[in-house]
Amino acid sequence: MNDSTKKIIFTVLVGLPTLLVVWIFSLYFLGCGTNNSCSGISLPDLTPIPTLLPATLPAPKVGLDAVAAAPKCQIAALNLIGAWDSAGHAEKDTFSFTDVKGRNCTGTFKDDVQKLFLTPNLWYDGAPACITCHYADIAKSTKNMDLSSYAGILAGSNRLNGAAKGNDILGGGKWTDALLRKMLYAPNGKTEIGRPPMPLGRSATVPAYGPLISAGVPTGGEAAAAPSPTTPAETPTPEATAVAAADIARPSNPGGPGEAVKMAGDALVGEQIFVARCTPCHGEQGKNGIPNPGSDDGSVPALNPIDPTLISADPLIFSTNLDLFIEHGSTPAGPSPVIRMPAWGDQKLLSSQEIAHVIAYLISLNK
Ligand code: HEC
Ligand code: HEC
Questions:
Q1: Are residues 213 and 295 in the same domain?
Q2: Domain count for the chain
Q3: How is 111-145 classified by DSSP, letter by letter?
Q4: pTM of the model
Q5: Residues near 119 by Cβ (< 8 Å), separated by ≥ 6?
Q6: Range of the domain at 350
Q7: Are residues 70 and 210 in the same domain?
Q8: Which residues are within 8 A (CB) of 147 and not within 5 positions of it... i.e. 6 or more apart?
Q9: Counting atoms of ligand 1 from 1, which one is nearest the CA of 132?
Q10: Among 50, 189, 283, 319, which is most buried by a count of CB atoms within 10 Å?
């Protein structure tokens, strides 16, 4: 080894540790000072890390997608409620069912059945939750029925008050007799008892037994290889129809006026249809829309008085403005509106003549 090599090695061996010691001491004195009152090294201000998702991301999926998070059994909504009812409709005990793949499965009310009553967008895209109309305040709730809790479901409909028993909707455990089944089983969008299928505003495209959902667990513990849940076809959210007179309120769904605008309507008949079909969301005589969380307005719009931009002295224009909403339905503006206006015409929930009657009634309210 020659001298210069030795010098280099010496410099590295002695120089580097010395530098390190000097650097640590300088840090220590900068942070703690010479009097050794170490109050912590003050770090420079950090750029805050954003914790909020950018507002441009699509709203998180709810309903079916949320329900379908874990690998589970697959069964039509109605068959699940039926299996629970037939097994004695217990609150906590498990009940058995066979899923669409023929697997033996078990579920519970709390984990599997209850969400069918509580979750919006579950029965179809845009569906209100059952509890939007059938909630705990018995005096105000539709059909004086509370579907928000186990006790409420067991207590049934048409109750005088929160403590009273009402009409059994579970058929005494005989599912084929259950009013709940009769209101939910809807081949081609119609119940067999001639009453509107639930959830009210339900589209004719919803399968007779309701949507296929993920529920329960396969018995025997064999972890199901995550079955891909059958999600209903994504309905495209069309751009708001271009409006010539930009200020007139228009539905988010596209389409022109239906046959109804050319028909004569009877306001008295329209009133009856309105009471059955429209008051659950728009209130008695259209005076008070129910709350609509996730919408910019916060509630379903009142129709009496109605949005003044819809009113016209020309009866044909007035009816057309109303008809576009009634025929095609509409999703209110807002991040994740729970309630949407059903497409009464497009989904054949009302005939053109019935729509003409309702329009006549709405016009009579807003003369
Ligand atoms: C938008 C409001 C609304 C929603 C949402 C709704 N319902 Fe109803 N429900 C009604 C109306 C209105 C009636 C009365 C219909 C009739 O008399 O024919 C009714 C009646 C019923 C009845 C019959 C009660 C009786 O004694 O006559 C049952 C059962 C029922 N609904 C269950 C449900 C279930 C289950 C859901 C959710 C899957 C649901 N409803 C969602 C408005 C609603
Ligand atoms: C499931 C709840 C629901 C039911 C039932 C319902 N609507 Fe609506 N309706 C809405 C919502 C939500 C809007 C707001 C839509 C928007 O802002 O795009 C709306 C809007 C309207 C509008 C436009 C009002 C405005 O200010 O823009 C009319 C007209 C209307 N509904 C008529 C009816 C009639 C008639 C019926 C009965 C045949 C009915 N609705 C039943 C939820 C409902």
A1: no
A2: 3
A3: IIITHHHH-TTSSSTTPPPGGGTS-S-TTTSGGG-
A4: 0.49
A5: 62, 63, 66, 67, 129
A6: 259-365
A7: yes
A8: 117, 130, 131, 134, 135, 153
A9: 5
A10: 319
Is there a domain that residue 334 lies in? yes
Residue 55 lies in a domain: no
pLDDT averaged over 10-residue windows placed end to end, the chain, 367 residues: 63 59 50 45 46 46 44 90 96 93 92 94 88 92 95 96 94 95 92 93 87 89 43 34 57 92 95 95 94 93 94 90 96 93 95 97 94
> Quick one: which of 309, 306, 315, 308 has its CA closest to 286?
306
The answer to whether position 87 is within a domain reads yes
Q: Is the dihedral of CA 15, 17, 23, 26 positive or negative?
A: negative
DSSP state of 245: S
Which ligand 2 atom is at minimum distance from the Cα of 273? 38
Residues 291 and 214 both lie in one domain:
no
Pocket test for ligand 2, best of 130, 281, 297 (most atoms within 8 A of CB): 281
Say if 280 falls within a structural domain. yes
Strand ordering across the sheet containing 95-98 = 95-98, 104-107, 217-218
